[in-house]
Structure formats: structure tokens, C-alpha cells
Amino acid sequence: MKKGTKVLLTMLVVAALALGFGFYILNQRVEPLQVEQDNTQTLNSPTTPPPTPPVQEEEAPAVSTTGWKVYENEKHVFSLRHPTNLQAGAISDNSVLGTFQAPVHGFHVGPLVLVVLKDATIKKDAQDYFNGVYTAASNPQPAQQGIEVAVECKLETVTNPDVVSVRAVSCNGEGGPAKYAYIAGANYDVFVDGYSKGYGGANYGELTAATDFVGILSTFKFSKAEASSSVQAASITTTTTTTTPPPPAIQSFTITADDVASNPGEITVTKDAIVQVTFKVHESMSSGLDFRSSVVNSGLVAPGNSKTISFKADQSFVFTPYSVANQSSKNYSIKVTVQ
Q: What is the pTM of this model?
């Protein structure tokens, strides 16, 4: 072999070895880089967040009625339990469903007044009144910055398997504490007025524990004997014939009211006339109004609705509108002048 050929072969072998070594080194550097890139992609890739645990409803506080007294109403045949510091059974002077001329009585259980709803008209008034408060508690107005909430209402959770249903609302605010409930039964319902205290001066005790109100409602029972007594009462009819004198003249007025004013703000009526006043509450109101006076009260008038009351004009007086949501009076009144 010639000398030049040997040199050429030697150079080719050296070049091949160098090229192979270069590929080896390059391969060793690329693999860690690929691993590093894979790790980077894993860290930066979006991950599926853990499932959000379901929101659990707040359970009603435990209510203990151990040692409470039992009140039984023999006339309407129902019973309940109440704290020992309360007196039960006295007939109230009135309730939020009544007026000065036509009071609606109930039975005291401490500061609560239980009104039995066997009269269709009173039942309708009770449903309207309670539904207005219940709606206000179910849809609270959002808080506004710099404005303190005047009243706070909440729905109470009551468990009572002995009635068809029971709904309850508790409020606290500038009008003082107010509690309302509507108990539905198979044959009649009961409205619970926990604000007026019967509009009387007697003290039958106060609810001292936060769970007293719910506890009383949870123990209410309609007796089975009530069904048969209701059938017997329904089968008895009484016919009364009376002779009435011709009615006096009737004067009618319509008053529209909202949070700040009424239109008109004053009416003038003839002495001894029968006056019919229709109160209309503007639909923009967040809760209903109750127009109260020393002569007659309107009861609840829900937003967007109207209600007509009547009275005999024998003296001048004023109506003061009260908010049903917080039982506070508005900053205006409606004057009735009798001439």
C-alpha cells in the first residue's frame, strides 16, 4: 500500500471516530433538555381543580321543651307547650288583624296572640298580612353604602309533623321585635301575632330564649276531635230576621300612598255620614302599609293592592301609616276632618 493511501485511510478513521463521539455528546445533552421541557410543560399545564364540596344548609338550632307547661284550648280544641314564665289562655283585646271598631281577638301565649281563622274574611286578612311579611323576609333589600338597615327579618325553620304546614318570620328593628307565624291545619288555620301583644296593658310574660318562639310553634297540635266538632258546628244554621233603618249617606274617597306622602293628605266628611276609604299602596313599595287611627285601622295593604274600610263620621282624627316590614310609622299622616 502506498504511503499516501495509508495517510488517507488514517484521516478517514479519525474523522469517523470524531463524528461518532460528537453525536454521542450531543445526544447526552439533548435528552436532559427534553426531560426538562417535559417537566416544564407538566408544571405549566392547566390542572383540574378539586371538586367544590356541596353547600350544606344551616340546621335549625336544637329546641328543648323539657319542663314546659301544656296549654289546651277547649273551645277550638288545640294544644301547645310553652315556657313556664308565660301565661296562656287569656283573650286579647285585639290583634294586628283588627280595627278599633271591629277588633279581632285571639288567645294569649305570653306576648303571642293566636287568632283562630274560621271566618273566611279574617282568614283572608291574615293570609295577606303574613304573606306581606314573609315576602319581605324572603327578599331582603340589598344594603346601601352609608345607610343603616332599619329592620332585619329572617325566616324561621320550624319542624312540626302534627300540622299541615307552619311558616314563621322574626324581625328586629326600630319598631321593636316582631314575630309572625301561619299554622295551616286540615280544618282551620291559626295566625300568630307576635307584635301587638293584643294592644292591651297586661303582661303575660316575655320570650327570653332565642328558641322559645320556634319551640312553641313546634309543639302546636290540632286535636282530632276538632274535625267532628267542626262538622257539627257546620250543620247548625241560625236564621235571624232584623229590621234595619235606612242607612245614612255614604261618602267615598280613594287615597294613594307610598313611603313619603299620600294623595290626598286630608279629607273632609259630613258628620254622621258613613265614610268609605279605599287605600292604595304604590307598587314601588318594598313592603305593605297599615293605616292606623283611634277609630279604625286598615290592616295590611300590600304593594300594588288596595283595601277599603268604612266608619261612621262622628269625630275628627288622623290615619298614621305604618310599615308592615318593621312596624315603624311613616313621616306623614292623613287627616280626617268631620264637619
A: 0.55
